[in-house]
Backbone:
């Protein structure tokens, strides 16, 4: 269930759920698709009919499941600091990462679909994808800067 108060977590997940689970796994093997788009949550997944990681990162079972399709994988992170772990997985696996040119107030794919429509959002995702690690790092700093306390821990 989704939380609607100001509590610490956006989703209340069953701790005994299968850790290899992905939301909307049918999108992995959809016929005629060249790419698998991976987003963080189920609402973003529903908005684009793509795969939801059900969190801000992926474990090896999920990675293996995605890669078993033989398709190119595009990670579309939420545009704030919580999207960083998913981007790091994409960099390690040499997957694409997309930083679409959305208005500054749009933080994820479900908001983008509401603003631009599904087709235009998908086109912006494809236009914004890259495997270039330097470009990914620059875009991460622009769209998902670390919180000040995270920067201090890293130093």
Residues:
């Amino acid at each position: 269930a989704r939380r609607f108060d100001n509590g610490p977590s956006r989703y209340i997940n069953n701790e005994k759920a299968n850790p290899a689970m992905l939301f909307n796994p049918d999108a992995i093997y959809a016929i005629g698709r060249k790419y698998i788009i991976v987003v963080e949550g189920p609402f973003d997944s529903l908005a684009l009919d793509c795969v939801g990681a059900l969190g801000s990162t992926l474990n090896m079972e999920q990675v293996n499941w995605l890669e078993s399709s033989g398709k190119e994988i595009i990670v579309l992170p939420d545009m704030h600091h919580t999207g960083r772990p998913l981007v790091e997985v994409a960099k390690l696996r040499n997957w694409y990462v997309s930083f679409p040119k959305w208005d500054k107030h749009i933080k994820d794919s479900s908001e983008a679909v509401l603003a631009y429509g599904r087709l235009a959002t998908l086109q912006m995702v494809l236009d914004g994808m890259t495997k270039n690690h330097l470009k990914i790092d620059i875009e991460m700093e622009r769209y998902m800067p670390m919180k000040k306390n995270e920067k201090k821990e890293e130093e």
The longest strand covers residues 35-39.
